[in-house]
Amino acid sequence: MLRLAVTTRAETFDRVRDPLADRDIAVTHLPAEGRTIDLSAPPDDRFDAGFVFPSRTQAGAALSALYAIPWVNGRETVLTSRNKGGVLAALGAAGLPVPETTMVSSPVNAEAVADAAAALSWPVVVKPNSTTRGTGVTKATDLDSLLGVIDYLDLVHDYRATGDKTFLLQEYLPDARDYRVMVVDGTYAGAVERHLPADDRAAGRWKHNVHRGAEATGVDLDPDLRRLAERTADALGASYLGVDLLVTDDRAVVAETNARPTVDAATKYVPDFYDRLAGLIRRTAEG
Length: 287
Hints:
Blueprint: E1 2-6, H1 11-21, E2 25-29, E3 49-52, H2 57-67, E4 71-73, H3 75-82, H4 84-93, E5 101-105, H5 110-118, E6 124-128, E7 138-140, H6 143-157, E8 166-171, E9 177-184, E10 187-195, H7 198-202, E11 215-218, H8 223-236, E12 240-247, E13 252-258, H9 273-286
Parallel strand pairs: 1-2, 1-3, 3-4
Antiparallel strand pairs: 5-8, 6-7, 6-8, 9-10, 9-12, 10-11, 12-13
């Protein structure tokens, strides 16, 4: 049986373990944090492949070398997807639709921020360049509130350990439908629509992240949107990718991507999702 290393014990681990075991792939936890790693001796254990390179990149590099692990999504793919501004720039250069976005590399003066916001119109979304699960994403309704957010970011960036000193100013699409689309081995593999409960929307909430209380419902996605997600994965060279689409009545844009996407319930994906995922894992193991 092929052994697959998965570096977290979150939802994805529990959901993929049994379906992949049915396909002769043993999903095994290889922790990348909360542990010590002996670098002086080869490990007794072995893995044929890894699922996705861990978010702790330093530990991931050590584990990759010790176990000689080929990853379905390797370090470069994960780092590429994590750089939201870089993704949007690459997709825009490839002719794919993205939201109007300005990257800010702090520290910046108030005039430059005001000019960038004025080009987008209010409100604007302020988004840390490397965040996940909606962490740190906020909405500024006027210049004073935006400059207040920038002040806090400058305070955080004063700490030298903070490597990424960039963030994004992005247009706000208030009525957009929010989709997470899964692409496996270059092909559409299912999608969910993420939406907040009505009471939360009435209370002024607007972020549709599942980890912040939104619900994810499986949908039969329009073929044009499927193709947009596939073209996004192809442009980034990612074999396994979550693509976030925002769709209004007159346009669809790629908001961001995730090379470490959470796997949802199998009923929300295409019927052969796990067959295709298993095939991708096997090809990764074979090199």
